[in-house]
């Protein structure tokens, strides 16, 4: 659950601690009150009870509910991502109000978070007159709520002083201001400049608008998510016309978590997935009613692969990616799904020069059922190499930049794209990664037919592993004991199956971050020697996110995801109700290392 509530925790702290609020010059007594906010309206305002969706107008664009942040934090103290979130909370400026509250209440920063946001937190985004704003609702112990205004020196508002059971306050620190509503068990927070959004949220249902919980689209979408009683996170969002809806639920099952996602997207049926084995070059106007299950294929990838996605590309998409058209005639015929995208690694000792780290490998694989198809794909790669090399004005690279090699009796090619790739990165750091140095980077591509698959990847030694796995099926990814733990299922209308081995990815990312650190130190020392002045080590902008990602993955074992579509139940509001709309479904399993 930690990965999916981190953004909510940071959003809450930005709202309550200042974030990026602009100066508010208006005094609390001058807070504008909408004309519809009359006594007879505010008398009908009630607190949400146990379900904040009852309080949320159906017109809200985004609704999120998170349960048990306090328990999550207690269970995950050793998680590096939890430590990172706590650091964010402590560093958010200005921290004065909440530090002050902690001192007066005898709580540290984490204790304040647990006390006021540890039970049920809801985040609502609304759009009023073209302006978007976020309001945070939190269910809190009554005794702790009563202590909060005095602990943060909140000022009672005059307009309005109360809205139903809620007492209205403003908080100030320097030139920043926030509005806070406190009831018996709930508090609401937003920036003072968005006070109207808060008042609309509190009174919308009272003036006759239906609540989110009573909204038909909300009910239908959440009903399609399993384990209603065990969800720790619920998300629902829809567009202004309610023709598109998305819902997500997170359920914890001991050492693993399951994320279920469902979406109704207009015109999804126009991008149908062909039956298993159908050519991507053929037009599929109407998929058979009994579409055979989509096969989970990963080709001859070796068991050492770190992350891979097998994508049954939507009709026509693969053609647009790989086919050059001349007069409507495709130059590559017979392509079929899936396309497999993968990330791997090889030891630094297997490349020259050795960069001193595990070297990342990027690549993709396509089914190539015939030698003729492989030749056409060869020609496509050669054409891309020619175009990029001509741009370098390097005749040697253009003419001699492709070598014919072999391994285990299989012939393939290697193309040196050199600076033609690296120079196309606007970000210098990404450019350096692409050219890690020379052969250790991502600029030399091995490509060719391996069995019935066509593979392109960035390291020759990894390409050899694919050849070995084709010759010996026991070396393949799909034969490894861990593959069965991913829980992949062959489903009709299957769109994608993907997985990541978290520890291996963590080591790889950490190694790349270490490479950047050493490279920057070498650069700084060289610069200092040239100008004869001392230098201080500088942390590269890219290194910190890499370290964070590596740390967040250390306590996970695997991520696995499947995405598919299912027949719909009829058009949503604003569409032809007689026309069945397919739904997009996804399920992710995350296994913990603890």
Describe the structure.
The chain is α+β, with helices and mostly antiparallel strands. The chain is 31% helix and 26% strand. The protein is built from 17 helices and 23 strands. The strands form 2 sheets. It has a 21-stranded antiparallel sheet that branches. It has a two-stranded antiparallel ribbon with strand order 13-14. The protein is elongated and about 85 Å long. It starts with a helix and ends with a strand. The N terminus is likely disordered.
Helices and strands, with pairings:
Blueprint: H1 2-17, H2 39-42, E1 62-67, H3 69-75, H4 80-91, H5 96-105, H6 109-117, E2 120-128, E3 131-139, H7 142-151, E4 155-156, E5 162-163, E6 166-173, E7 176-182, E8 186-191, H8 195-203, H9 216-223, E9 231-238, E10 245-253, E11 256-264, E12 307-311, H10 317-322, E13 325-326, E14 329-330, E15 339-346, E16 359-367, H11 371-391, H12 395-400, E17 402-407, E18 410-416, H13 419-422, H14 428-434, E19 444-450, E20 453-457, H15 460-471, E21 494-501, H16 502-531, H17 543-553, E22 556-566, E23 583-592
Antiparallel strand pairs: 1-2, 1-9, 2-3, 3-8, 4-6, 5-6, 6-7, 7-8, 9-10, 10-11, 11-23, 12-15, 12-21, 13-14, 15-16, 16-20, 17-18, 18-19, 19-20, 21-22, 22-23
Helix pairs in contact: 1-4, 5-7, 16-17
């Amino acid at each position: 659950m930690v990965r999916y509530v981190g953004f909510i925790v940071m959003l809450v702290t930005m709202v309550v601690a200042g974030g990026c609020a602009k100066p508010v010059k208006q005094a609390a007594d001058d807070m504008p009150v909408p004309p519809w906010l009359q006594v007879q309206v505010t008398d009908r305002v009630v607190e949400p009870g146990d379900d904040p969706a009852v309080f949320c107008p159906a017109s809200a664009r985004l609704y999120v509910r998170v349960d048990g942040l306090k328990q999550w934090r207690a269970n995950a103290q050793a998680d590096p991502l939890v430590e990172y979130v706590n650091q964010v909370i402590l560093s958010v400026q200005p921290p004065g109000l909440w530090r002050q509250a902690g001192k007066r209440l005898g709580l540290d920063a984490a204790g304040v978070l647990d006390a006021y946001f540890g039970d049920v937190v809801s985040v609502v985004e609304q759009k009023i007159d073209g302006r978007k704003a976020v309001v945070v609702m939190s269910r809190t112990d009554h005794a702790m709520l009563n202590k909060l205004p005095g602990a943060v020196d909140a000022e009672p508002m005059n307009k309005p002083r109360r809205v139903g059971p809620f007492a209205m306050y403003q908080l100030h620190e320097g030139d920043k201001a926030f509005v806070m509503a406190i009831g018996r068990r709930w508090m609401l927070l937003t920036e003072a400049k968005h006070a109207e959004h808060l008042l609309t949220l509190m009174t919308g249902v009272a003036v006759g608008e239906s609540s989110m919980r009573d909204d038909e689209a909300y009910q239908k979408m959440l009903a399609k998510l399993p384990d209603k009683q065990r969800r720790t996170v619920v998300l629902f969002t829809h567009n202004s016309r309610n023709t598109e809806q998305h819902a997500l639920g997170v359920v914890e099952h001991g050492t693993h978590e399951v994320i279920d996602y469902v979406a109704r997207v207009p015109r999804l049926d126009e991008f149908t997935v062909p039956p298993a084995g159908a050519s991507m070059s053929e037009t599929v106007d109407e998929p058979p009613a009994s579409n055979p299950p989509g096969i989970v294929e990963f080709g001859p990838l070796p068991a050492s692969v770190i992350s891979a996605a097998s994508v049954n590309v939507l009709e026509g998409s693969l053609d647009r990616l790989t086919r050059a058209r001349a007069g409507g005639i495709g130059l590559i015929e017979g392509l079929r799904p899936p396309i497999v995208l993968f990330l791997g690694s090889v030891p630094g000792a297997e490349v020259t020069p050795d960069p001193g780290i595990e070297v990342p490998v990027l690549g993709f694989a396509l089914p190539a059922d015939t030698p003729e198809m492989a030749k056409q794909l060869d020609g496509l790669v050669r054409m891309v190499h020619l175009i990029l090399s001509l741009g370098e004005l390097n005749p040697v690279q253009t003419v001699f930049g492709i070598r014919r090699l072999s391994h285990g009796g299989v012939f393939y090619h290697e193309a040196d794209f050199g600076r033609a790739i690296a120079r196309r990165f606007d970000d210098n750091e990404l450019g350096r990664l692409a050219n890690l140095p020379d052969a250790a980077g991502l600029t030399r591509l091995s490509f060719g037919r391996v069995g019935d698959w066509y593979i392109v990847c960035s390291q020759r030694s990894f390409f050899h592993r694919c050849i070995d796995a084709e010759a010996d099926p026991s070396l393949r990814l799909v034969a490894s004991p861990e593959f069965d733990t991913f829980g992949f299922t062959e489903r009709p209308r299957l769109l994608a199956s993907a997985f990541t081995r978290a520890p291996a990815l963590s080591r790889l990312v950490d190694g790349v971050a270490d490479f950047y650190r050493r490279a920057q130190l070498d650069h700084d020392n060289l610069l200092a020697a040239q100008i004869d002045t001392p230098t201080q080590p500088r942390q590269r902008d890219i290194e910190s996110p890499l370290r964070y990602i590596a740390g967040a993955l250390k306590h996970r074992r695997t991520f696995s995801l499947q995405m598919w579509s299912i027949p719909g139940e009829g058009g949503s509001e604003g569409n032809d109700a007689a026309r069945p709309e397919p739904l997009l479904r996804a399920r992710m399993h995350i296994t913990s290392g603890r």
